[in-house]
Amino acid sequence: MTHGSAVRTAWAPASATGWTVTVVEPSAPDTAAAIDFSAMDDAALVTASVEGRREAFDLIVERHRRTVYQVCYRFVSNHEDASDLSQESFVRAWRGLKNFKGQSALSTWLYRIAVNVCLNRVSVKTPATAPIESTDHFEDTRIEGAQAALLREERAAAVRKAIASLPKKQRATLILRTYHDLSHQQIADILGSSVGATKANFFHALANLKKILGNEP
Amino acid sequence: MTHLTTDELVDALEGALTSERQAHLDACEPCQVQLAELDTVLGETRTVTVPEPSPLYWEHLSARVRTAIDAEPPAAGGWSSWLRWPVLAPIAALAMIVMALAVAVPREPMTAPEVAVSELPGDATLDDSFAIVADLVGDMDWDTAMSAGLTVEPGDADLAVLELTVAEQQELTRLLQAELTRAKS
For the segment B87-139, what is each residue's pLDDT rounded down to a tens digit? Predict the structure, then answer.
């Protein structure tokens, strides 16, 4: 028996006794099609997500997935781990969304989650080496400059390895400042430190990189 | 004048040095050397790029996130956590006792409320009303019952006890004590 028929059956005797029965259909819930989530800003998407709108959270993921992936990649230097960490970052964001008060931008909050996820993972699973991606196209030595490109890529791998060896906060500061152009204040908010500490971390990260790379052949 | 501090060297790297300290930097070779070394390392660091994944990858990542969230257990503290038997059983038992008392204990006649309410028609009985309610909720699912306010919320049992008359509360106490004594024996 459907709800509608159940209601009619149940109220039929009551109607017969002289009551005036008015059955009001519940208002139809908003359908996803009726709401243009793409027009919403991040704050509105967060509100909609907390209210259970999965489509809104899907859009949050869509807007920020590239940035989150790139942060994760900077920490682990390989696609598979970066994918896993990105997924974990968004799942944690979903879990914690109702606690997001909007005191910082959603992107800053997501940065914080991603950095924490990466630092936790990296502390457990520090990459032994930073792989050189896609070196296949450098194998054709007939192409002039291929050797230089290979050397460049090897140097990039050495830089990645050097970054991976930095202490956690220096590494996070360097990544967020150099590759994501965040201000020292934003980085301080993300890492829970002061602007002074962030600048000191940035300086020491560069000084350590200079030392490490200076010893590279 | 003192050499640039680490903070000031970072400011200098980012072009944010004060004019006074910039004047020192312009005249101080050790600071210039240190800044140049940092600038070189920073420049080299910036050249390291993240390989761009396949264009199809981004949708794949979104799908992975969706799947992972779907597999998440319901949030703790939500209404579903109240559906567990260890929570529901005592509430149900207390509710049954309260209902039994409400029927069994004689109560003083209540004065009619001043707010006008619909009266039952002459041939409608209490049983008919229960039949209507039972028929209405018979095949109702949990979500529908929740939205209709028909479910037991946390604290409802406490409120129900508070609404009992003194005589009812005494009877409830007596019944609970008897039940406890019986359980011990």
Answer: 566 777 777 877 877 777 666 655 555 555 555 555 555 566 666 656 665 66
d(CA B21, CA A116) in angstroms, rounded, equals: 36
Q: Rounded to 5 degrees, what are φ and ψ at B142? A: -60, -45
CB contact under 8 A, B65 and A61: yes
CA distance B148 to A53: 21
The C-alpha of A141 sits at a distance from chain B's nearest C-alpha, in angstroms, of: 22
Cβ proximity of A113 and A89 under 8 Å: yes
Beta strands in chain B (DSSP E): none
Query: Which of A54, A70, A86, A87 is the best mutation test for B, with the most CBs of B within 10 A?
Result: A87
For the four alpha carbons of B120, B125, B126 and B129, in that order, the dihedral sign comes to negative
Give the whole-angstrom CA distance, residue B129 versus residue A19: 13
The pLDDT score that the predictor gives to residue B163 is: 75
CA angle A102, A103, A108 (to 5 degrees): 80
Of A190, A164, A151, the residue nearest A68 (C-alpha): A190
Instruction: Give the closest residue to B137 by CA, choosing from A217, A3, A95.
Output: A3
- Judged by DSSP in three states, B179 sits in helix
| Angle value at C-alpha A49, between A117 and A46, nearest 5 degrees | 70
Q: Can you tell me the ipTM of this complex?
A: 0.72
Q: Is B38 left (phi over 0), alpha (psi -120 to 50) or beta?
A: alpha
Q: Which residues of A touch B135 (CB under 8 A)?
A: 6, 9-10
Query: pLDDT, tens digit, for every residue of A154-183?
Result: 888 899 999 999 999 999 999 999 999 999
Q: What span, in angstroms and rounded, lies between the C-alpha atoms of A64 and A109?
A: 11
Contact criterion met (CB below 8 Å) for B168 and B179: no
In this structure, chain B runs to a length of 185
Torsion sign, CA atoms A149, A150, A155, A161: positive
Low-confidence ranges of chain A (pLDDT < 50): 1-11, 14, 27-30, 32, 127-138
Torsion (CA) A59, A62, A67, A68 in degrees, nearest 10: 80
